[in-house]
Amino acid sequence: MTTIVRHMDELAPVTDTQTIERHNISPEEYERIRSILGRAPNLVELGVFSVMWSEHCSYKSSRKHLRLFPTSGPQVIQGPGENAGVVDIGDGDVVVFKMESHNHPSYIEPYQGAATGVGGILRDIFTMGARPVASLDSLRFGAVTHHKTRYLLDGVVSGVAGYGNCMGVPTVGGELVFDRCYNSNCLVNVFNLGLARGDAIFKGKAEGAGNPIMYVGAKTGRDGIHGATMASEEFDETSEQRRPTVQVGDPFTEKRLLEACLELFKTDYVVGIQDMGAAGLTSSSMEMASRAGTGIEMDLARVPRREKGMTAYEIMLSESQERMLLVARKGTEEKVAAIFHKWGLNADVVGHVTRDGMARISDGGKVVVNIPAAPLSDQAPVYDRPAAPPADLAVRQELDLDELHQPVDLTATLLEMIGSPNLCLREWVWRQYDHQVRTNTVQKPGSDAAVIRVKGTTKAVAMSVDCNARYCWLDPYEGGKQAVAEAARNVACSGATPLAITDCLNFGSPERPDVMWSFIRAIEGMSEACRALDTPVVSGNVSFYNQTGDDPIRPTPTVGAVGLLREVDKLVGQFYRNEGDLIILIGETFPEIGGSEYLSVIHGIERGAPPKTNLTAEAALIKTLIRLADERAVSSMHDLSDGGLAVALAESALPPSGGGFGFHVKVNTGLRPDVALFSESQGRALISCPPDKLERIVEIIADAGLPGEVIGRVTTSEASITINDAPTVSTTVAALHSRWSGALPKLMGGGAVGH
Amino acid sequence: MKFAVIEFPGSNCDHDFYHAAKHALGCETRFVWHQERDLSGFDVVILPGGFSFGDYLRAGAIARFSPIMAEVARHAKRGGYVLGVCNGFQILTEAGLLPGALTLNHGRKFICADMRLRVETANSFVTRGLEKGRVITVPIAHMEGRYIADEGTLRRLNGDDRVLLRYCDGQGAVTDQANPNGAAENIAGILSEGRNVAGMMPHPERVVEKALGGEDGLLILNSILSRAA
Predict the structure, then answer these.
(1) d(CA B162, CA A315)
(2) From A251, A438, A453, residue closest to B54, measured CB to CB
C-alpha cells in the first residue's frame, strides 16, 4: 500500500473508492469521516482514520461485548482503558500488568515479530511508571508434524529471548501448546508485570494547554507502516509478502528508554506519556489528546527520522519501535532532554497541547492533518456483528464413552501422555529465557505459577497464563469459565490470593457469525468466572482475524491471572518434598473425558462436552489452597488440569532440576480406570503433607465443604497407581522423567543438552 | 570493603550485584556510571552482567572504550580487585585485562540454567573460602560464553593455576556432557596474572539466598571479604 500512496498527492481530498477500500474503510465509515471533518479527508487523514478505526486499535467488533467484563473492585486502581491495569498489593505498592498479542507479525517473521511483541508490552508497563519485573509468554503453534512448526517455534522463542534477556526482564513462565488449528496462524501472547508505588502512576493524557509535546527514543523509519491494519485482516497466500510491515526491534534502545523514563518519572516534569505502539505517532498523539479532552499541534518536520524523503503519511503511520510521546510541564523541556541525552537518546519538542480539541499536524508549514481529536476515538464505529452458533456444534459435543476402547496397559498410556507434545517438559523453551535476572524469581518456570518476590517487603506476586482452546471450541462458554478458573487456581496453588486478570482474546474473523458467537460466549463465561472468583479484568487485548482463508483458529481467550502472597516464605510448589508424606486429592472426579488431552493423544479424538466448571466449588477450592499454604500445612500443591489425576501425580514427581520423589496411590472409584485417571474435571487439586498435619488439613477441607481423600503417599522412586485393588500403573520416576524430558528436545532436533 | 558496581548502558545485573554486595554481604556499595573517571576509595570493582551497548559488534567490544575502563585498568594495576561476571567477563577480555575471548555458545542458543562448577584453585580472592575440587552450583545466563584461547594461553592459565572454575557434573567430573557452551577445557572462569582480576560466566550474585534456590554464590562473595588469602 505504501508504494502506491507515495505517488499520490497527500493533501488532495480522497474520494476514489479504490484508495478508500485499500485502507479497509467501508463506505459507511467513509461517510462518517466526512461528517466528522465536514469535508473529504486527505490521504494522510484517511491513513489516520484507517489505523485508528482498524479492528486492532478501535476494538470496533469487540467493544460492545467487552463491557460484560467485571472491571472494578477494591483492589483495582486502574482498569481497562489505559496502557495497562493497576492493582493494589498493599502498603502503597501496586502491580501494573497486561498481556498483548503479536500473532500476525510473528507468523510472518517469527524472530522480529516475537521480539517486538515483547518490546511493545514492556513499553506499555513502563509507560505507566512501573519497572517491568516479570514476563510470561503464551505460545501456540500448529501440529508438531507441520512443516512450519519447528521454524516458527524456534524463531519465536529466540525472539522472546533476544529481546527480553537484553532488557534484563526475566521471562519466568508461560505456556506452549501445539494444535493443528494454529498451522497457519500461530499465537504469540506476551504478559508483563511491573512494580510501582501507587502514588507514582503515569497516564497517557495530553493535559495543560501550552505544555510541550516531546518525542523521545528511537528515530522514525519506514518500518511497520500499517502493521495495525495487517493485524486486522485475515491471512491469504500473499501474507508472507508482508514481511516489510513487521517492525524490527532494538532492545538496547528500549533498555535505555526504560532507564531514562524511570529516571524521568522520579522528577515532576511529566504530565502524560504514551508509548508509540500500534499505529505509532498517530495513535499516541490522538489518544492522549482524546483522553484529556484537549487538542494538539505538532510539526512532523521536527520528528527525528532515520530515512530520507519520508512523507507525512509515512511518518504518521510508521510503527518504528522504541519510541514514546510525552507531554512535559512547560519550562522543563531541557531538563527532560538532558535525562534522555544521558542515555544516548533523542528527545525533541515536536508540538504542544492546545485547547481547541483539534489534532492539527503540519509538515514544515503546510497542515497535513486537521481532525477533531475526541470524535476520532468517541465516534469510532462500534459493530454489533451477527452471531450464531457453529452449525456443527452438536456434532462436536457428541461422545459415546462406550465406543471408546480402554487401553490394555495404562502404564504405557501414562508414559505416552507425559511424553506428548502438550504435556512434556518445556525446559527447552525457558532455558533460552533469562528467568532469574533481577534476583526475584522464587518459583522458577515449570510449576503451576511463576512467583517473584518484592524486594524490601515480605511479599511475592504469583502469575499464570492459561487457556484450553479445545474446550473453547467445544463450548466457548465453559471454556471461558475454565480459563479463568485454571489461571486463578494455578496462582492459588502457590499459596497466593488471585487478585485480578488480564487477557488476550485470540479469535478468527469477527465477520463470521460462528466466530462472533464463540467470542461472545467466551466473554460471558470468563465474566461469570471473574465475578465468582473476585478477579476483575484490568487490562487486555483482542486479536481477531487469526484465520487463513476459511479456516479460523479455535477460540483462544488466554487468561493471565495475578495473585498476592503476603509472606513469601509460605510459598508452596507443586513437587513432592518428603518421602512418606501423604497425598490428598481435593475435589470431585466426574466422567469428564470430552475434549481431554487423553482423548486427543491416545484416541485421536477431539470431541465431547468439555468439563463443567462449578464456580462455587472452584472458589471454595481456591480459598482452601490459600489457607493450607497460610497455615504451612502442606509440602506441595498442584492443580489438576490437562491429563487429569494421573498426569498431575506424575508432574508432582518431576521437578525440572531432577531429584524428585515418587508416589504410591490407591483409587477407589466407580469410574472406568482410564476415565478415573485422565478425566479433566475442574475444581481439583493434589496436595502432599507430613502425616502429622493430616488432622488439621482434613478440618480445613471439610470446613470448605469440599470432598477430600487421602489417596496415597510419597515414595522414593516408585510411581504406581492401584484402582479398586487392581495394580493399574506401575513404573518409576526415572522412567517417567526420561519420557517427559526427552520429548521436546527430540522434537526440536537438538538432542541432549548438557547440564 | 567498599564495592563499586560499574553501570554501562545495557548492563542489567547491576542491581542484582548491588543487592548482593549491599544486603547479602552488608558492604558499602555504590553504582559508578561508565562515563565517570574515578574509582579511588573502592576495594572491589564489579563489572556486572547484561548487554552493555546491546552487545552490538561483539559482547563487550564497545564497553571497553568507556571512560571508566581506563580507571578500571589503573585499579587493577594498583592491585585492586576486579570481578567481571558474564558480560563483565566479556568486557575484561575485550579490554585485555584477561586473556582469551568469549564466543557464541556451541549450541547457538542462550542458556539460562544451574551449572555444577568445580573449584580449580583456592588461591584467589573469589575462591579462597573454598577448597580446590569442591563442586558448587551457580547459574549461567548467556549466549556468548564459550571461552576460547590459544594453546599457549591455555597452557599458561593451567601452569600458573589461573583457572578458577570448570563446568563439571554432579560428581565433579569435567566432561563434554557437562560443558554447556563448548568452552575450551570446560573453563567457566579465570584469573589475571596478578590474580587480582577475575572473570567468570556463572552468576554468583543470583544465588545468595535460599529463597532464590541456593546460596553457593555466597561462598564466592564471602571469599572476597575474607582477607586470609
Answers:
(1) 56
(2) A251
Residue A252 has pLDDT above 60, yes or no: yes
Summarised one tens digit per residue, pLDDT across range A401-412 is 999 999 999 999
Query: Quick one: CA dihedral A647, A648, A654, A655, positive or negative?
Result: positive
Contact between residue B75 and residue B34 where contact means Cβ atoms under 8 Å apart: no
d(CA B80, CA B74): 9
Which residues contact residue A256 at a Cβ distance below 8 angstroms, ignoring those fewer than 6 apart? A343, A344, A345, B9, B10
Distances (CA, A) of A290 to A54, A59, A395: 17, 16, 48
**Cα separations (Å) of A509 from A65, A103, A109, A471, B192?**
15, 14, 21, 19, 62
Q: Which three cell numbers stand for residue A524?
A: 460471558
Residues contacting residue A334 through CB under 8 Å, at least 6 positions apart: none
Instruction: Give pTM, 2 decimals.
Output: 0.96
What would the DSSP string read from start to end of A436-457? STTS-EEE-BTBSSEEEE-TTS
Q: CA–CA separation, A669 vs A667, rounded Å?
A: 6
* Domain assignments of chain B as residue spans, ordered by start: 2-226
Name the β-bridge partners of A117.
none
Q: Is B212 on the interface with A (CB under 8 A)?
A: yes
**Mean pLDDT across A11-31:** 93
**B2-226: which CATH architecture?**
3-Layer(aba) Sandwich (3.40)
Considering only CB atoms, A166 lies closest to which of B19, B54, B212, namely: B54
- Helices (H) and strands (E) counted in chain A, each on its own, are 27, 28
Strand residue runs (E) in A64-217: 76-78, 85-88, 93-101, 131-141, 171-178, 187-197, 212-217
Q: Which residue of A has its CA nearest to B54?
A: A252
CB atoms within 10 A of CB A355: 11
- Of A56 and A368, the one with more pLDDT: A368
Q: Which of A56, A352, A638, A737 is catalytic?
A: A56
- State the residue for C-alpha cell 562473595: B221
Other beta carbons within 10 Å of A208: 18
Buried b (16+ CB within 10 A) or exposed e, B59-84: bbbbbbebebbebbbebbeeebbbbb
What is the Cα–Cα distance from A425 to A656, expressed in whole angstroms?
A: 7
A102 part of the active site: yes
Instruction: Say if the Cβ atoms of B109 and A432 lie within 8 Å.
Output: yes
Cβ proximity of A454 and A498 under 8 Å: no
In sequence order, which residues have a C-beta less than 8 Å from that of residue A328 and are 6 or more positions away?
A211, A212, A214, A269, A270, A271, A336
Contacting residues of A for B9, CB less than 8 Å apart = 252, 255-256, 259, 343-344
Phi, psi of A205 (to 5 degrees): -130, 130
Question: Among B20, B54, B208, whose Cβ lies nearest the Cβ of A252?
Answer: B54
| pLDDT tens digit sequence for A452-500 | 999 999 999 999 999 999 999 999 999 999 999 999 999 999 999 999 9
For residue B211, the one-letter residue type is A
